[in-house]
Amino acid sequence: MDISIDFIRRIARAAAAETLPRFRSQGAVANKEAESFDPVTEADREAERAIRALIAAEYPDHGILGEEHGSENISRRHVWVIDPIDGTRAFISGLPVWGTLVGLTVDGDAVAGLMSQPFTGELFYANASGAHYEGPGGPRKLATRKTTELAKATLFTTTPALFKGEARSRYDEFEKQVQLARYGTDCYAFAMIAAGSVDIVADPGLKPYDIVALIPIIEKAGGVVTTFEGGPAEKGGDILAAATPELHAAAMAALRG
């Protein structure tokens, strides 16, 4: 099925109405984890509530999986997957590299998605017409760089500290093979693959709502997104995205050691 750009823009606007007024406002931050710091804000909760209301009104027969408000009807063929603020740590730190992620799966496959960064006025999205960008500089179709060699690649990961034990050793060796490595930016780094500015993102331990929306944006721009083992990324896990199939294969081999 196709998702109209009008509906995609409506989702982005509804989320922005809840997130932007609370960005850099020093609002209250709660912690979802007893033994670590996993922040959640009123902006997270209210943005997801607004997104869910739009989806329920437009597609009442579809299921929804959201980070903050749980799941409903996820046995349906069509399921929307929502992360109202991907990068809450950046959000509460005043850094504009967070984004709203909303993706649609059909029979488990991600077919459409959006990443909205309202502070910078950017919208990255994919539907049946391909992968697109709207924002400063004007609208355009998204296309990955044609990088095929690790030695010429720019790599992002949230932080190498997420790689544990032997996986950290393999990551460190992998990083030595690329031209440039940078950390942080969460969903923004994945969007930059589709935009042709970043070549590889390797992030372990992602949840479905961290990646589903980004899969069709990257794939329809020419990239590849899988788990580190090469499996489907829709259920989350250790996720590897790359600008070209050749670069993805080289990165996957390097991460395996």
UniProtKB/TrEMBL annotation:
Catalytic activity: L-histidinol phosphate + H2O = L-histidinol + phosphate
Keyword Metal-binding included in the entry's annotation: yes
EC annotation from Swiss-Prot or TrEMBL: 3.1.3.15
Listed pathway(s): Amino-acid biosynthesis; L-histidine biosynthesis; L-histidine from 5-phospho-alpha-D-ribose 1-diphosphate: step 8/9
Cofactors that this protein relies on: Mg(2+)
InterPro entries: His_9_proposed (IPR011809), Inositol_monoP_metal-BS (IPR020583), Inositol_monophosphatase-like (IPR000760)
Molecular function terms from GO: histidinol-phosphatase activity
Coiled-coil intervals, chain numbering: none
Keywords for this protein: Amino-acid biosynthesis, Histidine biosynthesis, Hydrolase, Magnesium, Metal-binding
First-tier enzyme category under EC: hydrolase
Family the UniProt entry places it in: Belongs to the inositol monophosphatase superfamily.
Protein name: Histidinol-phosphatase
Encoding gene (name): hisN
